[in-house]
């Protein structure tokens, strides 16, 4: 009889080696600072640095890190859109936002998109390293200012006086499909229209909600309880 352990029931292996971190940041000096910090600190490894979300999405799958440190204000695709795509393609990937923005809409959109934490760029280096380890261990690190806003945001979550934002019934139906996870193509099929028509209506929805992307629209719809 074999005495080797049954792989189907064996406990998962404990991760060993340095914590692998990828950085997505367009600011040259800040990106270099992060790369130096990670590369010179025992227990950490900077696996890659990307200037744009598009570059990261194209290449990060070749060597997945343990944690991604992601900026929001990137050229081209924003980090808000990017976190949703990263989590869609790599569900187990841990994404930690690292940004100068601390407004409710971006915080809510990032967390709804799958971010495990939200840090401001003024976070001291020692604390940043602690947060990376905390996120890798299953935590949800946030800068103190952000944590307070999140608590207030969920405590005071309620629809505004004009809850519909002048959205038409058709626009609300489309927004509901997006909240449910539909793509432009499947939403078009569900509504019996073309993808071009979906895109047309989405532009009106974005204008009325004062957002710039599908993920921001979904986050705002959830936060303001626009979808019944």
Number of helix segments?
A: 10
Please count the beta strands (DSSP E, at least 2 residues each).
Answer: 5
Please summarize the sheet with the most strands. 5 strands, parallel
Mean pLDDT: 85
Element pattern in H and E: EHEHEHEHEHHHHHH
**Strand portion, in percent?**
5-15%
For the largest sheet, list the strands in their spatial order. Answer: 2-1-3-4-5
Indicate the percent of residues in helices.
40-55%
Q: Shape, please? A: globular
Helical/strand content category = alpha/beta
Measured between the Cα atoms of the first and last residue, the distance is: 59 Å
Poorly predicted tracts of residues? 1-14
How does this model look, in words?
The protein is an alpha/beta fold and 228 residues long. 47% of the residues lie in helices and 12% in strands. Strands 2-1-3-4-5 form a 5-stranded parallel beta sheet, with helices on both faces. Strand 4 (94-99), helix 4 (104-112) and strand 5 (117-120) form a beta-alpha-beta unit. Helix 3 runs parallel beside helix 4 (104-112), helix 4 packs across helix 10 (214-223) and helix 8 (184-191) crosses helix 9 (195-209). The termini are far apart.
